[in-house]
Amino acid sequence: MTKPFSKILIANRGEIACRVIKSARKMGIATVAVYSDADKDAVHVRMADEAVHLGPPQAAKSYLLADKIIAACKETGAEAVHPGYGFLSENAKFCAALEEAGIVFIGPKPKAIEAMGDKITSKKIAAEAGVSTVPGHMGLIEDAAEAARIAADIGYPVMIKASAGGGGKGMRIAWTDEEAKEGFERSKSEAASSFGDDRIFIEKFVVEPRHIEIQVLADAHGNCLYLNERECSIQRRNQKVVEEAPSPFLDEETRRAMGEQSVALAKAVDYQSAGTVEFIVDKDRNFYFLEMNTRLQVEHPVTELITGVDLVEQMIRIASGEKLALTQADIGIDGWAIESRLYAEDPYRNFLPSIGRLTAYAPPPEGPVGDHREAKPITDGPAGSAIGGGLPVIRNDTGVDEGGEISMFYDPMIAKLCTWAPTREAAIEAMADALDSFEIEGIGHNLPFLQAVMEHPRFKKGELSTAFIAEEYPDGFAGAALDDDRLRLVAATVAMARWITERRASFITGRMKPVSKAGPKTVPLIVSAAGQSFEIAIDHAASAGFYERDAIVSPYEDETGAPVFLRFVDEDEARSYRIAWKPGFKVATLFSGQAGGEDWRKIAALKLDLLPGGFRVRYRGADLKVAVMSPKVAKLAALMPEKVPPDTSNLLLCPMPGLVVALHVEEGQRVEQGQALAIIEAMKMENVLRAENAGTVAKIPVAVGESLAVDQVIMEFER
Question: What is the pTM of this model?
Answer without folding.
Answer: 0.81
